[in-house]
Amino acid sequence: MIKIKEFQGEYRWLSNFWRTDIVFKGKTFPTLEHAYQSCKCNSKLDIKKILQCKTPGEAKRLGRRIEFSPFHWEKVKIKVMKDLLTIKFSDPLLRRKLLSTGEILLEEGNYWGDTFWGIDLKSGRGKNVLGRLLMEIREELRNESKEKVS
């Protein structure tokens, strides 16, 4: 099976670290990672701190240290990610790029051991939730395009 095994190089645009404005809850975030980390925040001050992060890596590190919102994050994080990915791929250029991957398997391969969102490239293990969400959105966009033609 043909697959994209990591979101680097020519496929960096699949990464949550890709620079593209994400407008969410009335704020414009420079990357999906910034927006995602802000959803964990329990205060406007923490959201402001996330927005001020110069890089998505900095936003991710800060997101690990902030006080979480009162709701149970583990129960909503996948839905939050899908909502943000849907916003990201509403951009016409990114939508076309995602659709151009056809039926290719999308894997968020990594060397930092993330076996929830991706696949650990050292062990080959992981749930690849991010890759699966991207493929789900790709299918939804494909079906949306078919409906417009009909």
Indicate the percent of residues in helices: 40-55%
Widest sheet: strand ordering: 1-4
Report the top-level CATH class.
Answer: Mainly Alpha
Radius of gyration: 16 Å
CATH architecture annotation:
Orthogonal Bundle
Number of helices, counting only DSSP H or I runs of 4 residues or more: 6
- Helix/strand class: alpha/beta
Show the helix and strand layout.
Layout: E1 3-4, E2 19-24, E3 27-31, H1 32-38, H2 44-52, H3 56-63, H4 73-88, H5 92-99, E4 105-106, E5 109-110, E6 119-120, H6 129-149
Parallel strand pairs: 1-4, 5-6
Antiparallel strand pairs: 2-3
Which features characterize this protein?
150 residues; alpha/beta; Tetracycline Repressor, domain 2; two-stranded antiparallel sheet; 6 helices; 6 strands
Describe this structure in words.
There is one protein chain. By secondary structure, the chain is of the alpha/beta class. It has a single domain (3-149), classed as YbiA-like (Tetracycline Repressor, domain 2, Orthogonal Bundle). 46% of the residues lie in helices and 13% in strands. The chain is built from 6 helices and 6 strands; from the N terminus they run E-E-E-H-H-H-H-H-E-E-E-H. The chain has helices at 32-38, 44-52, 56-63, 73-88, 92-99, 129-149; strands spanning 3-4, 19-24, 27-31, 105-106, 109-110, 119-120. The strands form 3 sheets. The chain has a two-stranded parallel sheet. A hairpin with a 2-residue loop joins strand 2 and strand 3. Helix 2 (44-52) runs antiparallel to helix 3 (56-63) and helix 4 (73-88) crosses helix 6. It is globular and about 45 Å long. The two termini are 31 Å apart. 28% of the residues are buried. The mean pLDDT is 94.
